[in-house]
Every structure is written in C-alpha cells, then in structure tokens.
Amino acid sequence: METQAFSFCRQCTVADKCCTNLGPSFDLPAPIVTEAEARRIRLHLGEEPQSFVTPQVRPTDIGHIRTNADGRCVFHHDGRCAVYDARPFDCQVFPLDILRIGNGYYWVAFTEFCQQPMHLEAMLIYGESLLASKDFGFLQDFAWNISDHPCKLVYRVLKEIQPASLAPDLASKAHWQLDAP
User: Fold this and answer.
1) pLDDT tens digits for range 124-160
2) Which of 56, 82, 97, 145 is spaced 20 to 30 Å from 103 by Cα?
3) What is the pTM of this model?
4) In this structure, is residue 108 part of a structural domain?
5) Average pLDDT in the 56-85 region?
6) What is the DSSP letter of 164?
7) 99 located within any domain
8) What is the CA radius of gyration of the chain?
9) 31: closest CA among 79, 78, 72?
10) What is the spatial distance between Cα 111 and Cα 96, in angstroms, rounded to a whole number?
11) H helices present in the chain, as ranges
12) Pick from 87, 127, 92, 122: which is nearest to 106 by CA?
C-alpha cells in the first residue's frame, strides 16, 4: 500500500528535499522519533539512540532525529535513507502530518512542499493503517498544537482523526529521557 500511496515520490523534481532541509533554519522540523522507534532504529543500526536522537528538554517530550548543520537527516547518505525499513512514523507518512486544532486531531498534507500530484486518498488510507496500531497517548504526544508547530509551510486539512479508531491504551504511558551528549 505504501508504494501506491507515495508513488509520486519517484517523480520528485527536488529529490530528497524532505530529508535535507530539516531543522530550525530550514523548511521542516526534524522528524519526531518515539522511544519505541528509537529502539527499532537502534536494533537496525546497532547504534545507541544518543547518536541519532536529539536530547529532550522535558521528560514528556518526544525526541527528534538529529540533523547535520546543513539540514540533512543523519540517516540520509548518498540520496538514500539508511534506516528506511525502520524509519519513524513521522517519516513514513510525510508529507502528511497530524495537527491538534482546538480539541481535535487532524490529518494535514503539506501539498505546497511536494510539487507532484498527490494521491491523498491512498495516502490517508496508508497513514490511518499505521495510526490504527497506536494508542491515544501516541496521538496526544505526536500531534503538534497548531500554534506551536515549528513548520511554516502551507498545509491542507484533510480529515479529523477519530480517537476511537486507535488502539486502546493498555498501560500508562512511559516517557523517556536521553542524556545530553
């Protein structure tokens, strides 16, 4: 399903812009990475999360993938993703994102960022299939409040997310903290 939903990426005229313009001085915030995703990437690479996740400011923060000074993701090498099979949810669904607007959670698309025609319906189906395995705590932690989102790109609101469609919270959410390097 991912191949069908994101087939427009193969025709991208600004290849890898989504992986090379990250961080405060660039177009996009660095992708969010959860503790479970950091563990999966660690198993994939054999490296400790401190080498690829930024330290968190507060214990409730979710980390972000580190970027190089030039805005490239630390996993972006020779035009390819070194952790593609283990990449975080944020990378899997981009150019979709989830924003908290008022009391609701919404799928949005950065349609201006990607110049190719998008298959938004297929992308939403794929994104929702990934989100269905997450619990409401993930949604609360992952979604940016619209007023706090560091990205100033134009987005299009696609659909409200119904929290009832998510996996039930089975246990209290454990937050994590990386030590600063």
Assistant:
1) 999 999 898 888 888 888 887 777 766 777 888 999 9
2) 56
3) 0.82
4) yes
5) 82
6) G
7) yes
8) 16
9) 72
10) 9
11) 2-5, 17-20, 35-45, 89-93, 120-131, 136-142
12) 127
φ, ψ of residue 100 to 5 degrees: the values are -95, 120
**Short-list 19, 29, 26, 41, CA closest to 178:** 41
DSSP reduced 3-state for 93: helix
On whether residue 58 sits in a domain, the answer given is yes
> Which residue do the tokens 């993701």 mark?
73
Residue 58 has pLDDT above 70, yes or no: no
- Which residues sit opposite 106 in a β-bridge? 99, 160
Domain count, the chain: 1
Dist CA 85 CA 36 (whole Å): 14
Round to whole Å and give the CA distance between 56 and 171.
23
Q: Any idea what DSSP says for residue 58?
A: S
Buried b / exposed e over 18-46, threshold 16 CB at 10 Å, is: bbbbbbeebbbbbbbbbbebbebbbeeee
For residue 172, name the pLDDT band (cuts at 50, 70, 90). Answer: very low
Residue 9 and residue 123 in contact, taking contact as beta carbons nearer than 8 Å: no
Q: Specify which residues 76 forms β-bridges with.
A: 81
Q: Which amino acid is at 68?
A: N
**What is the residue range of 45's domain?**
2-165
CA 97 to chain CA mean position, Å: 7
